[in-house]
Amino acid sequence: AIGLDVVHRKCIIGNELLFILSHKYIVKGGKAMKLFIDGKEGTTGLRIFQRLQGRDDLEILQLPDALRKDLHAREDAINASDVTLLCLPDDAARESVSLLHNAHTRLLDTSTAHRTHAGWAYGFPELSAQHREAIIGGRFVAVPGCHASGFIALITPLVSAGLLSPDTPLSCHSITGYSGGGKRMIAQYEAEQPDSSLISPRVYGLNQRHKHLPEMQAIPGLTLPPVFSPIVAPYYSGMLVLVPIHGAMVHAAHPKQVLQECLATHYAASPVMRVLDEEKVAAWQGFLPAHAMTGRDSMELMVLGNDDRMQLAAWFDNLGKGASGAAVQCLNLMLGLPETTGLVL
Fold first, then answer.
1. pTM for the whole thing?
2. 3-state secondary structure the chain
3. Hey, which residues are catalytic here?
4. Per-residue pLDDT tens for 58-117?
5. Each residue of 6-52: pLDDT tens digit?
């Protein structure tokens, strides 16, 4: 660093006077952007923090443990930042938005709270040039949900191209590792003597009111939400999303080839998205392990089956493109950096 300015802010907890130090570094090529992660101790927040910790283009503002839930301290940190990442439950994320009064600060929310709200960009830049520009220039950006990411990646290009009607009744099965359930679920699965009910995959969201359904309907522009069956299985991370399609649903002859070509063309320029051809799918010898993309921030799409009955498949890590990887990608775009900076592809 060429220079260093330090701003002291006082906060009082009980009888104890604490100082929060906000460091403003001047580095080669410009100023390090100040980032605050509100909710750094959660699964997603901690993973993002670990990813960004070593980057010299960012300065991460941190609160002492005694202040991390203090409303005024959080307000100070949010408004001192260039970008604040919200890694919180929905109600807490809404509360953090209400604390914002610095017109310079931008928000990147990983919760469900703002994904379909007007004024919030949906953080999936590969969907269209408009989505990408909204992230780059937006003040408020919402990171997609994990299950929703796979479904939306598969369906949005097909609806946009007119191959599927917006009123097509769709269904979706999505299997995920238990890390998607956060610290409490991780502790349950990794207990010394876990409950016997955890040894096999478990279907949940039984009331068809899963929190990802609004974005799964709104972003592709569907008339109806899909019938959605999320499944959590006894492995740590990785996700496989499947959408069954009858050939009669597709407005084209030779529907399997047409869907494959549509997805491949749509994502051809993306460094993050890949559409697998039949040869690459065949290498898996008829089985697709849901954890295969663990540790990676990319997503792989497939069109399986035949012209009569198909399965659209999205393969990724629920902690990667399904969570922290997507957040880092959006953050890079918001800061004018190459979008793959810090990603594992």
1. 0.91
2. CCEEEEEEEEEEECCEEEEEEEEEEEECCEECEEEEEECCCCHHHHHHHHHHCCCCCEEEECCCHHHCCCHHHHHHHHHHCCEEEECCCHHHHHHHHHCCCCCCCEEEECCCCCCCCCCCEECCHHHCHHHHHHHHHCCEEECCCHHHHHHHHHHHHHHHCCCCCCCCCCEEEEEEEHHHHHHHHHHHHCCCCCCHHHCCCEECCCCCCCCCHHHHHHCCCCCCCCEEEEEEECCCCCEEEEEEEEHHHCCCCCHHHHHHHHHHHHCCCCCCEEECCHHHHHCCCCCCCCCCCCCCCCEEEEEEECCCEEEEEEEECCCHHHHHHHHHHHHHHHCCCCCCCCCCC
3. 146
4. 999 999 999 999 999 999 999 999 999 999 999 999 999 999 999 999 999 999 999 999
5. 333 444 333 333 333 333 322 324 578 999 999 999 999 999 999 99
